[in-house]
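Contributing: when you submit paired examples, paste them exactly as shown. First protein:
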Amino acid sequence: MPVPLLDLKAQHQTIRDEMVKAVMDVVDSQLFILGEPVKQLESEVAGLSNTKFAIGCANGTDAILLAMRALDIGRGDEVVTTPFTFFATAGTIHNVGATPVFVDIEPKTFNIDPQAIAGGITKKTKAVIPVDLFGAMAPIEEVKKVAGSLPVIEDAAQSIGARRKIDGKWVMAGEAATIGTFSFFPSKNLGGYGDGGMIVTQDPAIAERLMRLRVHGGAKQYFHDEVGYNSRLDALQAAVLKAKLPHLAAWSAKRREHARFYDDAFRGLDGVVTPHVDPKNESIYNQYTIRAERRDQLQAFLKEKGIGSSIYYPLPLHLQPCFAYLGYRKGQCPVAEQAAMEVLSLPVFPELTQAQLDEVASAVRAFYGR
């Protein structure tokens, strides 16, 4: 039985009528840019993330870029971040004119190591960007402690709805940072029918500036306080996301259920290390990512059996050719480099059947002789 890494068609079949109505309501209104659907979604995402403000934008990459612009980060500045993440995290640092400073990750969670951040901070540092990788929050309270007075931009592209218990209280992804950023790329737990992003904050001044920056830097049409961007969340995408949002908690719970199945299936299996979730965290499992011996051979074996998988990420950012000018060398972020050689993400989407889960687990076990 073929098992794809992700099956969005299976999800669509369960909510098709809701989606058609949401889209057609916008089409019938002929109001496609910002507007009421975007305002409603912003309000609901702010509520979900326990923040005072949410500002929609064109995509998750722009969310990070706009966040840095709102903090006046630019040429000559440095931003500390992780090398083990999607390219946008560091690409946006470069694109505002700043320099990414890469520090290593924790070996178990793959998230940025707070202790390593201290070694990356200099007089030029203007912010720290931790990433909530694979759906589990980075230790935001520890990151903030090390960052001190520096602003923290939480790249929560993969973790909307995730939470972490801090001092006995649940804190949502995006809630505790200076600015939090989300992506609504179709493969995310809350995915649109195209690109979309959202920025959250507790700071009214930051929120006001972000609302200007996303529309060419002007709060009033044809009057521009600064040079901004064309980075608006489409009304169509907002309507789709708003219709999907009530399902998010159940979808993420189903992913956790599938993750528990895999954890049990692979327990004691030599050659496989199952994902470690910090006991303080509740992950939304945007990915179920194992460490695997003979990773590439395992992936080829699964492909032969029609089972989807993917490597997030095969080359850490500090070793990417486009960042060669920074002068990083192999061995400077050894934990990230080791992870890049071992990680493999398996199907974990909510609509997986028990037969499909059994197929994946049996194939992995068979490869390792169990």
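Second protein:
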Amino acid sequence: MRTTHGRRRAASLAAIFCLLLAAVALVGCEKEKPAQQPGQEEAKDPSARTSPTSEEDSPGPASDTVAVPAPRQPKIRFDRPDHDFGEVEAGDEVAHVFSFRNEGNAPLTVGKVLTSCGCTAALVSEQEIPPEGTGEIKVTFQAKGLQGAVKKGLTVESNDPEDPLVRLTIGGNVLSEVRVEPRYLDWRTLRPGNTPPPKKLTIRFLRGRGLRLERIQSESPSVVLTKTSEEENKLVYSVALAEDLPTGRFTGRITIRSNSERVPEVHVPFQGQVQGNVKVVPHILSLGRIEPGKPLIRHLRVSKTADRDFTVQKVKATSGAIATEIHEEKEGTRFRIKVTYNPANEAGGRIAERITILVNDGQDGFLEVPVYGTMEEVAEKPVG
């Protein structure tokens, strides 16, 4: 009995000992297992397995603007926009060529070339100039009717967005066989009965050419010419206003004619106004371009500028081609004058006439109105 009981007890002790050994072994395995690193659990997430990017590889902050290439555009460039032709005689013709180039990166298109009086210009190269290409503009200057220092301007239009209008100049000194000073006379506004002192008009001829004055004449009776001195190649005239000059505007020109073939005539315009009780509108009557055989009708209006009433007594003209009719629109205050120009079938040319209006505003007076126009050439009839 004791033996069997002892065996059972020994077996129980052995089982307990085995359990203890297994427990010790399990604890030892846990101790040998490496400790978990911080963040190791997060590494199990696929998104966390991506290796970190270095600072050099990391993209910078997003740019607010996107670079846009500069637009292609033309650029016109004149090396010498001003030209001095030096000395030239009146009546001669001089020419100059302005060169330019396209400094842009798009085709340059040259449009109009606008010139002042006395100049003509033409584009002698292609109208469209490629980048780095060149072009030329030829300018012709007419030194007719000019004297002394002269300067003319030109304007070149193009598709250059920064400089669409380029200003060019051409000038020099014009030597005239007949030189007149001054070239324009202006008395401005005068008071009735207040006659201003005469003005001086000097005429000079180039020496050694046998030049002489043939005729000098004023278009208006309001301006009186008197020669005051004469030297070799030089004459001086006094230009005075007529006494008791009537109220109103007076205009016209002095014509100086010599034996010069280059400058046969020189014209000196003049104007002034005597402030009075009556005025006429317009003070210069323009007929424009006149067709031969076709009458033209224009109107002049005469009205008072003060309290005194007036009447239009008579209207005279320097040409039989001008017919006039007086119409009283308001008694003593306003008149209308119908002017009819009856052109004959004559050769073309400039028309320069004058209308004189006789008025009575308490004292007899007159108003002068210059009449200008251009007669067109008569077309030749075809033969056959």
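If you have annotations for the second protein, write them as plain sentences, like these:
Residues 29-56 have pLDDT under 50 and may be disordered.
The two ends are 174 Å apart (CA to CA).
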